[in-house]
């Protein structure tokens, strides 16, 4: 006999987005059940953003120390993975224990249930023998898992995903990375800087293919300088493992590596959720929503599952919209025009809004401005490590997109995100005073080249 409990809201998945929705609704006084089958906090704190950025920080420290001979004397750099692995365990993940996060949620008044949730009908969710009936509705925030392509021989081998790559306490001598997106590129640079022989296999014509071609060029140049072999336009056709990995490619060549990291994108966790009981397609790639994050009657979806951009800031943004909608508070609806993103390479590659191609494909009358960072005063002063550029895309008298690649690329993009978001007129931007000699002053230089 199934026990049915009446509540206001059930949140399925307490990653970044679900924890934000559940915590805020509970703090607002609603009776909220949050269900999580792994770790409260989700991918970002345990296997994503936080530990990988600790790895990036460590790799960048090594790279900066290696630049000393060009700038300030001599340096001897001896990489050691142990401090990185221990920082990930002790400071980032509590050794993959979510007690702090569970307490954070329950202290706001949320009721926490550890288990796998399935939807059984409108407003109904089951976890084991417990069924919840949610008067206001259900929020789906189940995130993504690594997509594993159907390559002959791959299944059953001890390949890594981002999870094993974050958890490792020792480094392999060599690593093949399948996929040259943000995940593949960030891991590639870090591991290469710690002495691992890294090869990226990217199926499309360039790495970071979603970004500007200039971003791909900079990324390829710096990764190559770090010793990474970047192979583009090739696909793996077969994987074999005995001791190490042997990957056959469709150009007839073979690549070998002690470990293989699969970084070929992410799949939304939507199958086995019971979405068919709501008339939704459980085989769909993403769970589409309207601009209030409503996916169906009494059903909201936030975060990676919506397919609007797999970023922590996107999960938080969508969570805020869903919370306001559930509480009947109104406020702005979803608007993705000024979505910022940063690929944490050295140099960081920040971007916002549309790329030049996206703007042209949208039929806009596009003007483009661009400067190499080394051509700016601060880039010149910076010297070694000053790879990068600033590119601005304008249409209809305002910016619709931009890329800032450089030592502070992730910070520089903030100014341009404001410009795109607030639709600041180009004439207003043109009269702005940019501090000298900052990296962001290059934005003023790029704006002057708009043509
Ligand atoms: C290696 C890596 C690096 C990244 N770096 C960055 C970065 O630098 N910046 C950035 O913005 N983003 C980054 N991301 C992306 C970021 O981690 C995600 O966008 C973010 O975690 C999405 O949050 P979410 O709540 O949608 O999903 P998730 O964090 O995936 O949380 C979903 C939760 O739902 C749970 N769940 C799923 N199904 C069920 C079920 N049926 N019942 C109960 N629980 C369930 C899961 O266990 C999980 O805890 C990175 C991702 C990876 C993999
Ligand atoms: N700094 C950040 O914000 C950050 C960092 C990491 C991840 N993320 C998020 O996670 C998402 C997933 O990252 P990702 O890098 O796994 O995905 P991705 O989709 O960005 O890149 C995957 C790459 O793998 C390639 N690929 C796919 N199948 C292949 C195959 N069989 N052989 C060779 N190449 C193949 C694709 O062409 C693509 O370039 C990102 O889109 C991003 O939203 C963000």
TrEMBL record:
Annotated residues for binding of FAD: 53, 304
Residues annotated as domain Pyridine nucleotide-disulphide oxidoreductase dimerisation: 340-444
Sequence positions that bind NAD(+): 179-186, 202, 265
Cysteines paired by S-S bonds: 44-49
Annotated ranges, domain FAD/NAD(P)-binding: 8-319
GO molecular function: flavin adenine dinucleotide binding; NAD(P)H dehydrogenase (quinone) activity
Protein name: Pyruvate/2-oxoglutarate dehydrogenase complex, dihydrolipoamide dehydrogenase (E3) component
Organism: Actinoplanes derwentensis
């Amino acid at each position: 006999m199934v026990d049915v409990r009446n509540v206001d809201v059930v949140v399925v998945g307490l990653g970044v987005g679900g924890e934000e929705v559940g915590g805020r609704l509970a703090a607002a006084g609603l009776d909220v059940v949050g269900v999580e089958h792994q770790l409260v906090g989700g991918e970002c704190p345990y296997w994503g953003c936080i530990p990988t950025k600790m790895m990036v920080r460590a790799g960048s420290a090594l790279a900066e120390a290696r630049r000393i001979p060009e700038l300030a004397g001599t340096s001897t750099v001896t990489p050691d993975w142990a401090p990185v692995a221990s920082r990930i365990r002790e400071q980032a993940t509590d050794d993959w224990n979510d007690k702090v996060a569970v307490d954070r949620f329950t202290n706001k008044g949320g009721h926490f249930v550890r288990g796998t949730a399935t939807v059984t009908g409108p407003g109904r969710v089951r976890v084991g023998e417990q069924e919840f009936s949610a008067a206001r509705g259900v929020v789906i925030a189940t995130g993504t898992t690594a997509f594993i392509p159907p390559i002959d021989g791959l299944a059953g081998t001890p390949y890594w995903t981002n999870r094993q790559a974050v958890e490792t306490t020792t480094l392999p001598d060599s690593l093949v990375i399948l996929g040259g997106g943000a995940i593949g590129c960030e891991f590639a640079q870090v591991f290469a800087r710690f002495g691992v022989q890294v090869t990226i296999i990217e199926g499309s014509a360039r790495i970071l293919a979603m970004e500007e071609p200039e971003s791909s060029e900079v990324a390829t140049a710096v990764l190559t300088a770090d010793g990474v072999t970047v192979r583009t336009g090739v696909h793996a056709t077969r994987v074999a493992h005995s001791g190490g990995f042997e990957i056959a490619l469709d150009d007839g060549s073979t690549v070998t590596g002690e470990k293989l990291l699969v970084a070929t994108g992410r799949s939304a966790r939507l199958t086995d959720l019971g979405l068919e009981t709501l008339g939704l397609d459980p085989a769909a790639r993403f769970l589409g929503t309207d601009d209030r994050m409503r996916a169906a009657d009494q059903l909201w979806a936030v975060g990676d599952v919506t397919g609007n951009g797999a970023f922590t800031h996107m999960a938080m943004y969508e969570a805020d919209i869903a919370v306001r909608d559930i509480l009947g508070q109104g406020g702005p609806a979803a608007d993705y025009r000024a979505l910022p993103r940063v690929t944490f390479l050295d140099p960081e590659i920040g971007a916002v809004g549309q790329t030049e191609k996206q703007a042209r494909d949208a039929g806009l009358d596009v003007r483009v401005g661009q400067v190499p960072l080394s051509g700016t005063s601060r880039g010149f002063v910076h010297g070694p490590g000053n790879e990068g550029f600033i590119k601005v895309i304008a249409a209809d008298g305002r910016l619709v997109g931009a890329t800032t690649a450089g030592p502070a690329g992730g910070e520089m993009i903030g100014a341009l995100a404001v410009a795109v978001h607030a639709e600041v007129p180009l004439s207003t931007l043109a009269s702005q005073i940019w501090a000298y000699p900052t990296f962001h002053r290059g934005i003023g230089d790029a704006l002057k080249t708009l043509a």
